[in-house]
Amino acid sequence: MRFSEKLSVFLLSYSPLDFWITGPLLNLFKKSHRLNVPGPSWLPVVGCYLEFSRLLSKFKYHYLVCENYARRYGPITGLRLGRDRIILVSGFKAVREVLTRDEFDGRPSGYFFRLRALGRRLGKCGPECTERHC
């Protein structure tokens, strides 16, 4: 059997279901999913939730956990809790920069954000809302 015949048999033996399962698994481990800001490393499905919950049980309050991250990683820290990517900003200069730059305008769009707002997007959420409401 030639190589091309072996390759065609190999490719035919894989069903689309195999690619459907292995594709997302490979994407979980890609480096491009990392945020471009310093922060703790995370696992594919849970993110850094395990470390965050460990620190929360140690410090008892969320703001103390955030202060700990700011001391370790700097005033702008990137986290991933589950599927959500979160940026923690602390300190007057960093908060002022984030609040005055257009790149940081908008609201997150996730299940819990929509649940809390009863299915609507509240506040300024992009150019389409600015055109519609202003």
TrEMBL record:
Keywords: Monooxygenase, Oxidoreductase. SUPFAM superfamilies: Cytochrome P450 (SSF48264). Pfam families: p450 (PF00067). GO terms for molecular function: heme binding; iron ion binding; monooxygenase activity; oxidoreductase activity, acting on paired donors, with incorporation or reduction of molecular oxygen. Belongs to the cytochrome P450 family. This is Methyl farnesoate epoxidase-like.
